[in-house]
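Worked example 2:
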Amino acid sequence: MKIADIMTPDVDACSPQATIQEVATRMRDLDVGSIPVAEGDKLIGIVTDRDIVVRAIADQLSLDRPISEIISSEPVTGNVDMSVEDAANLMSQHQIRRLPIVENNRLVGIVSLGDIAVKDETYDNAEVALDDVSEPAEPDR
């Protein structure tokens, strides 16, 4: 099965100039834990609810600051032609729960571990990825 078959198309992205508050509100309204950051349709980063907590709130940044100050730039991405298994392996390898999907440098979708668990008939892919993503990361030194 191809990742294009299970990804969420028409992703709601935010601009790098959006404020931290605006992005947090959008996450709440959309009931999502991450939002891609794009200039037009070109993906430049991704921001997660954890980024907001760890990089903004914990550092006491003003919520009026642009989201570009706390995004994860150069995110790991997949492509529409990759298999669900390859996507799950990539997510596992990088310990990420959401994978933006790009085609010709354009953001065209996003897939989560939940998408893989619900839409992939084998379920093995999600289980393997979730086990690896849930492993504690090595502390920064």
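DSSP finds five helices and seven strands in the chain. The first helix runs from residue 20 to 30.
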